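Hi U.,

Before I forget, here's the chain from the pilot set. I'm dumping it here mostly so it's searchable later in email.
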Amino acid sequence: MSDPKTFDALSAIVFVVGLYEGLIPFIAKLFDADPALSVPSRMDAPAWWIVAGLVLLVAIVLLERIDRAKRRAVRA
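Structure:
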């Protein structure tokens, strides 16, 4: 996995999942919308906060770790 394009593709997947499952539920609840594929948007009040927040947090951590791994792979 030393190809930078592989890291970029992985970053894109993590970003989209983090955005759609982590950030979009907060925006959807704010505007009273119902995104079609967002799982946390369909949950009850305390659960969706926890799930969306955790997904957002995990996505941020994974993006940082993928970026570090990409920099190490490119340097080597």
